[in-house]
UniProtKB/TrEMBL annotation, chain A:
The Beta-adaptin appendage C-terminal subdomain domain, residue ranges: 724-841
GO terms of molecular function: clathrin binding
Subunit structure of this chain's protein: Adaptor protein complexes are heterotetramers composed of two large adaptins (beta-type subunit and alpha-type or delta-type or epsilon-type or gamma-type subunit), a medium adaptin (mu-type subunit) and a small adaptin (sigma-type subunit).
Low complexity bias locations: 1-17
Function: Subunit of clathrin-associated adaptor protein complex that plays a role in protein sorting in the late-Golgi/trans-Golgi network (TGN) and/or endosomes. The AP complexes mediate both the recruitment of clathrin to membranes and the recognition of sorting signals within the cytosolic tails of transmembrane cargo molecules.
Keyword line: Membrane, Protein transport, Transport
Family named by the database record: Belongs to the adaptor complexes large subunit family.
Region of interest: Disordered: 1-23, 630-663
A biological process term (GO) from this entry: vesicle-mediated transport
Primary location group: membrane
UniProt-recorded name of the protein: Beta-adaptin-like protein
Location(s), subcellular: Endomembrane system
Organism from which the protein derives: Trema orientale
TrEMBL record, chain B:
Predominant place of localization: membrane
Xref: Pfam families: Adap_comp_sub
Organism annotation: Trema orientale (Charcoal tree)
Protein name stated in the entry: Clathrin adaptor, mu subunit
Start and end residues of each MHD domain: 177-437
Length: 846, 438
């Protein structure tokens, strides 16, 4: 009988229904349970099928547990499998009923048919009920010694499942040692492969608490084991090969012969039909040769062809996975792929996620010899494909223009875009022309002539409008109509919804005023009046600021608003090289697809210990990535940001660390919520003035403003003034902290021992915070739970604005504190370190 | 770690769960809801096959009217996960006999559950080879009522271990008639600029094999590729026969092919699996013979009229012919009326895809039929939205023709019983993405 048809089902599968059917089934099952009539197995099978199909669509059939168990005494293997499936599904919610099944599962584990032994063992381990683990140890032990490989395969995985239910039971039964023995001795390669995955998982997780386990994890990467696996690699299934290759990629070879031996052995893996195997071997090749520059180059040449083949075969999803990796390699070594640029041409019907990656690769490989062809191709897309991709391709043209010396032809193309009379094309092109002018002011004449012809009325997008207004202000001396256009815009001040545009309008009208005072005066007055009445805080503040500045001194105002500008030579790279290297180390994983290292997106429990540090970088980059719209950024992040920004950040800090998790937004690290909160707050405030990353020009304006208000840059005077005095009321906002943390080198790394009293007192991060505060060392973020805590501190010298930044990881289990100190004034860091240590050592003392 | 799939879901297009299997506890139970609300019901669907929602990553693929979704919470191996899905679908297809869609899943859900248990354990891929699985998970999971206790069944893995046989073929196969079918299937991709220059052109080919051979045969395949021939002439120290040789950019092989031997001797030798499989895949970018040339001229006569002239030249041998030739010429959305003149085939306007569709069922070599059409447009007020000309697309199949020029030179079958085999070789070239800008 087929499962019930669509129409009979409840519209939402999450709403259980069908009570009458369930009780009906119960009755029928009961009748069959005791029956020994011929053909009873077939009718049982039909009933079981029904039960499972109900289970699948979300109807709660757990009430049938007893009847199912009663019926399961059959010898029919299909019935058994369905019964196991049912039991596995409901055991967790009904631990008491699960106890009923232990008996028959244990009996089946001793069946003479290895198939049934294996199945029963698998189901037994899948019950996932913590208080039943005692029944698992025996069957697992004999399963691992079973003469049949099928049972051993299942048993090895069973050990891993047991470890996840109860780690101590698994370790106490000494199963890892048995697995290790099997790993090196079992004739069946699937057993070996499963041992490898199980041991890797168990020891990585154990390594956080036990040194022995971390030693064991190291031995997995030792030469004998790696060579043993490599020599058998052809016997492994394709999936197991991926596993082995992943291990080999982490292996540290002893010398160059070692490296070449491995590469020779694995060369043919690059021809494997399974793309995952090819990628895994690619990773091995790349990692092994990292230190040998020449060979590393050759590796790139060697892997190029197989990867290009993989891209062009298989489903779009598969080629996306490969393309993401190819993208990473292209970005790392564009010159190697620059002659293959035609492979990255988009096909009309390709999905946009593939096109987007290809566009980025085309941008990366552009050099003197192929720029013309690539830009020609990109211009085709601007006219020819769907709108988001058209936009991307215009941006790509702009990027190429910004990275090339010979921009002649490209500027012409961009100007043609402006004349294409499509809203989105014009909008994107305007933003690009603006960036281009900032880098190549010499082109202003040609560009301004074209830009002047564009009517403001046709531009709706805030970003494009802002760009146009910026140009109007900046080049008002060359554009005849500039004051009048600005005037027209100011007249419609109230219709302008974007604060970004209004801010730009204020600045532009100021700039214009200093260049052509008589024509602009009226507009300026209107703009300042409108700005002062604006409900948006930033707009209002800026208008007020300009107003007062003009009142104070007009020449100073001119110096502030219209300083001599230098061409921007390099636009900020959105990703640090450290991050890029980290992604490269995680080749062949999700990191590459998301274009961020794994610690940014996996749950804490999945991180290794070594990934614990550098969360600060994660935070800032995470924010940037979200802005640049990397494929696959988290959806929920935005909602949660709003939540966070509403809550008071001080309140956040007083909460116990256990509460933090509830507030964690996926792209941020939970332990740093307090930073995240204050950061999002400041983001909210500044979001109208700056669009981080994407619109560098606006931060330019901010600099204009801030240049007077605060001097962010440290005073260069090194003069150490002993003894060190710290400013008890130092202030540093989270953004400035992050920026400094990224910019400054580590000047000192140290490890202290904590006093036992200190350890005792450190129950929550807050206790330490208050203590350090009394020593004028302020905390900007903290997090973690016993036994590991993490803090970011800062301090400021009393007389000057020289800052010290500290990352402090405290482990109460080992009574150690690890410190990383960064300082504006490096020479004082040693002194500060001892100050910090003395402050820390007083912690916990009465 | 490679994939550690925490869960796998099969959903229909409405988002109803057809089958789900939770492998690990590290993802919550409402994963389907997350997928439905954040991906299926938004514009995000189709924008990226890998998405992160909350702490979990979703990999999804659409296969006919089914979504297959893998959920992971760790930093999983994406390529491996997608390959796993593809292989799993191939496995299911080999069980259902062809189609994989919602109905097939509904009718076989018990079997799929059984298979899902075998092919993945605790998130790690296990054995996906249909050959092996069919030994112990029999069709429909139904054993004939006459068979006795299941213990009679030989235990597959143990048997294989003892005989030391290859994992993809079982021993003791007997066929009355020993036959091998070779299909060389090439798809040719072309991107031609409006000026008629080739922007991008390559051929991806695969050799599909169907083996009905007894025992444990050893096969050896010879192709006219350059490296292989050179190697052969070196070994035999005599010059190769003249004839066209081709250069393969890259080759990948089925796991049965002895790669060590391929690298040293450049011969493709293997013990084939029983039945149908894909022996090798290759890619060629140099010296591609394009089967068709398309010469379009599209004139916009004022605002409301267009003149479309398309000439298609077949450049393969006069004795050959192409089948199912379809040429799609995009026209603006506001097309009102069309009239055609064709020298061969039939043409009509398809409003659903905004294209003039010209179909020629049988297209002989060395001919050049033309189509000319007059298109009348509705004049619209929205003048700003000027028409961007999408490329002309073409579909075709040319039997007995390879765009790469690849030929099978020999296929040797050796088995210890020394039976005779019959070998069949077919060639076919299909259009991949064959685009001509105009």
């Amino acid at each position: 009988m087929a499962p019930p048809a669509q129409s009979q089902r409840s519209p939402s599968p999450s709403q259980p229904s069908g009570k009458s059917e369930v009780s009906d089934l119960k009755l029928q099952l009961r009748q069959l349970a005791g029956s020994r009539a011929p053909g009873v197995d077939d009718s049982k099978r039909e009933l079981f099928k029904k039960v499972i199909s109900y289970m699948t669509i979300g109807i709660d059939v757990s009430s049938l547990f007893g009847e199912i168990v009663m019926c399961s005494a059959a010898s029919d293997i299909v019935l058994k499998k369905m019964c196991y499936l049912y039991v596995g599904n409901y055991a967790k919610v009904n631990p008491d009923l699960a106890l009923l099944t232990i008996n028959f599962l244990q009996r089946d584990c001793k069946d003479e048919d290895p198939m049934i032994r294996g199945l029963a063992l698998r189901s037994l381990c899948s019950l996932r009920v913590a208080n039943l683990v005692e029944y698992l140890v025996g069957p697992l032990g004999s399963g691992l010694k079973d003469s049949n490989s099928y049972v051993r395969i299942v048993a090895v995985m069973g050990v891993l499942k047991l470890y996840h239910i109860s780690a101590s039971t698994c370790i106490d039964a000494d199963f890892p040692a048995v697995l290790k023995h099997l790993l090196l001795n079992d004739p069946d390669t699937q057993v070996v492969a499963n041992c490898l995955s199980a041991l890797q998982e168990i020891w990585s997780l154990e390594a956080t608490t036990s040194e022995e386990a971390s030693r064991e994890r190291e031995t997995l990467l030792s030469k004998p084991i790696v060579y043993y696996l490599l020599n058998r690699i052809k016997e492994f299934s394709e999936w197991a090969q991926c596993l082995v290759l992943d291990l080999v990629a982490k292996y540290v070879p002893s010398d160059s012969n070692d490296i070449f031996d491995i590469m020779n052995l694995l060369e043919d893996r690059l021809q494997h039909a399974n793309g995952a195997v090819v990628l895994a071997s690619t990773k091995v090749f790349l990692q092994l040769t990292l230190s040998m520059t020449d060979v590393h180059q050759q590796v790139y040449e060697r892997i190029k062809a197989p990867l290009l083949t993989l891209v062009s075969s298989g489903s779009p999803e598969q080629s996306y996975a490969v393309l993401s990796h190819l993208h990473l390699l292209v970005i790392r070594a564009p010159y190697i792929f620059s002659s293959d640029y035609k492979h990255f041409y988009c096909q009309y019907n390709e999905p946009s996620y593939v096109k987007k990656l290809k566009l980025e690769m085309l941008t990366a490989v552009a050099n003197e010899s192929n720029t013309y062809e690539i830009v020609t191709e990109l211009c085709e897309y601007a006219a020819n494909v769907d709108i988001p991709i058209a936009r991307e391709s215009i941006r790509a043209v702009g990027k190429i223009a910004l990275q090339q010396y010979d921009v002649n032809a490209i500027v012409d193309r961009l100007l043609q875009f402006l004349e294409m009379e499509k809203d989105y094309v014009t909008a994107e092109a305007l933003v690009l022309v603006k960036d281009l002018l900032r880098k190549y002011p010499q082109w202003s004449h040609d560009c301004i002539a074209v830009v002047g012809n564009i009517s403001c009325k046709n531009i709706q997008e805030p970003k494009a409008k802002a760009a146009l207004i910026w140009m109007l202000g900046e080049y008002s001396q060359d554009m005849h109509d500039a004051p009048y256009i600005l005037e027209g815009l100011i007249e419609n001040w109230d219709d302008e919804h974007s604060a970004e545009v209004r801010l730009h309008l204020l600045t532009a009208v100021m700039k214009c005023f200093f260049k052509r005072p008589p024509e602009t005066q009226k507009a300026l007055g209107a703009a300042l009046a409108a700005g002062l009445a604006d409900f948006h805080q930033d707009v209002h503040d800026r208008a007020l600021f300009y107003y007062r500045l003009l009142q104070y001194n007009v020449t100073v105002a001119e110096r502030v608003v219209n300083p001599p500008k230098q061409a921007v030579s390099v636009f900020a790279d959105t990703q640090s090289s450290e991050i890029k290297d980290r992604i490269f180390d995680e080749f062949n994983s999700l990191s590459v697809v998301y274009q961020k290292p794994s610690y940014m997106f996996t749950d804490k429990e999945h991180r290794g210990l070594f990934e614990f540090s550098d969360e600060l970088a994660n935070l800032s980059i995470g924010a940037e990535l979200a802005d640049t719209g990397v494929p696959g950024h988290s959806v929920e992040a935005n909602d949660k940001d709003l939540l966070l920004s509403n809550s008071n950040s001080e309140k956040e800090e007083t909460r116990g660390p256990s509460n933090y998790d509830a507030y964690s937004a996926p792209s941020y690290d939970s332990s740093l919520v307090s930073i995240a909160a204050s950061q999002t707050q400041s983001d909210l405030i500044s979001s109208s003035t700056t669009v981080p990353g994407n619109a560098p020009h606006s931060s330019f304006d901010i600099d204009d403003l801030l240049g007077l208000a605060v001097s962010v840059t440290p005073s260069p005077a090194p003069a150490p003034s002993p003894p060190l005095k710290l400013n008890p009321k130092a202030v540093l906002d989270a953004n400035a902290f992050q920026q400094k943390w990224r910019q400054l080198p580590i000047s000192l790394t140290q490890e202290y021992s904590l006093s036992p009293q200190g350890v005792g007192a450190l129950t929550t991060p807050q206790t330490l915070l208050r203590h350090m505060q009394s020593h004028s060392i302020h905390c900007i973020a903290s997090g973690g739970q016993s036994p590991n805590f993490k803090f970011f501190f800062f301090a400021q010298k009393a007389e000057e604005s020289s800052n010290f930044l500290v990352e402090c990881i405290i482990s109460t289990s080992s009574s150690k504190a690890q410190l990383k100190i960064k300082a504006d004034d490096q020479s004082a860091s040693q002194e500060f370190s001892s100050f910090f240590q003395s402050a820390l050592s007083k912690f916990g003392l009465p | 770690m490679p994939v550690a799939a925490s869960a796998i879901y099969f959903l229909n297009l409405r988002g109803d769960v057809l089958i789900n299997r939770l492998y690990r506890d590290d993802v919550g139970g409402n994963m389907v809801d997350a997928f439905r609300t954040h991906i299926m019901q938004t514009k995000e669907l189709g924008t990226c096959p890998v998405r992160q929602i909350g702490g979990c990553s979703f990999f999804y693929m659409r296969i006919s009217n089914v979504y297959i979704v893998i959920v992971v919470s760790s930093n999983a191996n994406v390529a491996c996960a997608f390959k796993f899905v593809v292989e799993a679908v191939a496995l299911f297809k080999s069980y259902f006999g062809g189609a994989f869609d919602e109905d097939a899943i509904r009718n076989n859900f018990v079997l799929i559950y059984e298979l899902l248990d075998e092919i993945m354990d605790f998130g790690y891929p296990q054995n996906l080879s249909p050959e092996i699985l069919k030994l112990y998970i029999t069709q429909e999971g139904v054993r004939s009522p006459f068979s006795s206790k299941p213990t009679d069944k030989p235990v597959p893995n143990a048997t294989l271990q003892v005989t030391g046989a290859v994992g993809w073929r079982r021993e003791g196969l007997v066929y009355k008639k020993n036959e091998v079918f070779l299909d060389i299937v090439e798809s040719v991709n072309l991107l031609m600029s409006s000026k008629g220059s080739v922007l991008r052109c390559d051929v991806t080919g695969k050799i599909l094999m169907k083996c009905f051979l007894s025992g444990m045969p050893d096969l050896k395949l010879g192709l006219n590729d350059k490296i292989g021939l050179e190697k052969e002439s070196q070994l035999k120290s005599r010059p190769t026969k003249s004839g066209k040789t081709i250069e393969l950019d890259d080759v990948t092989f089925h796991q049965c092919v002895n790669l060590t031997r391929f690298n040293s001797e450049k011969t493709v030798s293997f013990v084939p699996p029983d039945g149908e499989f894909e022996l090798m895949k290759y890619r060629i970018t140099e010296g591609v013979n394009l089967p068709f040339r398309v010469l379009p001229t599209i004139k916009e006569l004022g605002r409301t009229r267009m003149e479309v002239n398309v000439k298609v030249k077949s450049v393969f041998g006069a004795k050959m012919f192409a089948l199912g030739v379809v040429i799609k010429i995009p026209v603006p959305k506001q097309t009102a009326k069309t009239s055609f003149q064709v020298t061969s085939g039939r043409a009509k306007y398809n409003a659903a895809i905004d294209c003039l569709v010209w179909k020629i069922r049988k297209f002989p070599g060395q001919t050049e039929p033309t189509m000319s059409a007059e298109v009348e447009l509705i004049s619209t007020m929205a003048e700003k939205k000027s028409w961007t000309r999408p490329p002309i697309q073409m579909e075709f199949q040319v039997p007995m023709f390879t765009a790469s020029g690849l030929r099978v030179r020999f296929l040797k079958v050796w088995e210890k019983s020394g039976y005779n085999t019959v070998e069949w070789v077919r060639y076919i070239t299909k259009a991949g993405s064959y685009e001509i800008r105009c």
